Amino acid sequence: MNNSVRHIPMLNAIVCSMTELTNFVILEGSKTTVKNGVINYVPEFAKVQREQGEEVKEPQSALIRSNIKFNKGILEFKFKAADKSTGILALWHHEQNEIMAIGLSRQTNSFRLVSHELGADIKSGNINQFKSNEEVYLRIEIDGTTTSLFINDVLMSELDYQPPLTPITLRVTSTGKVSLHDLKVETKRPKLFVVMQFTEEFNNLYSDVIVPAAQEIGFEVIRADEFHASTPILSDIVKSIRESSAIIADITPDNPNVFYEIGYAHAIRKPTILICDRSREKLPFDISSFRTLFYENSIAGKSKIEESLRKYLKNIAD
């Protein structure tokens, strides 16, 4: 692995070190500035009429967007807020009915991880535990389909959810000045965990078809027989399924281990691609309703399954 590789805003980039975020565009917030990678928010107020008819002044949000797209890896920054009535949402995404936000919520005065797609809203801690203008370190880690929010290295909330691939966007709202600095990102290649029987026939399918097709899209591919840790194999499998962005499972033979791993992947809503040799006459009832890619053990069949896998994996990666 080349440790000199820097961030390239592509899904299949391999990044070995944190990269400073310096390229930003201010979408909203005329008083907000960005200089030398430091974002300085200055509040602007507008009159808002509440339901009771009362007219109050409310701070307006600033939207700051980076040129880097992100949904896997680590995003971190430090911030200082002069007023505790502050919201700083990272990876803010709002499109039609889909809302996703991670960070500090002014509305609930808590650290918050929200996904309207899953109907999840996890709140923990609050900004009152910090003094005004005290530096706070916020980190978001997305590993496989697990999204975690850390404040000062303490895990605040976690959700089995992978945000959509979108430009890094910050939404800042406060009644006082806010500064954000040391913004860094580390992207990771998505992982693909392959579940299948370990025999020569399937080994060839794995090495000659699955691995090349997945690596072409940008996936890091792993199979259970490639583990070299001293921990129990089941623990490694469960960890790999959780950390992976998708699963490929060959269901040609009736293998209990394979079906156990498929069941676990489905239980945690992990994107799963089922593949099967056409020689199998009938699929098990419990999985017969799931979409399955059938292949033929021939040169022509190899090309077709490769093409199908690329399409499926590209949709998952995007």
In short:
The protein is an alpha+beta fold and 318 residues long. The protein has 4 helices and 22 strands. It has helices at 200-217, 233-243, 256-267, 299-317, and strands at residues 19-20, 24-28, 33-35, 38-41, 45-49, 55-59, 62-70, 73-81, 86-95, 98-105, 110-115, 120-124, 136-143, 146-151, 154-160, 166-174, 178-187, 191-195, 220-223, 246-250, 272-277, 292-295.
Task: List SSEs in N-to-C order.
Answer: EEEEEEEEEEEEEEEEEEHEHEHEEH
Which radius of gyration do the C-alpha atoms yield? 23 Å
The mean pLDDT is 85
- The beta-strand count equals 22
Catalogue the unreliable spans.
1-16
Would you tell me the structural class of the helices and strands? alpha+beta
Q: What share of residues is helical?
A: 10-25%
Number of helices: 4
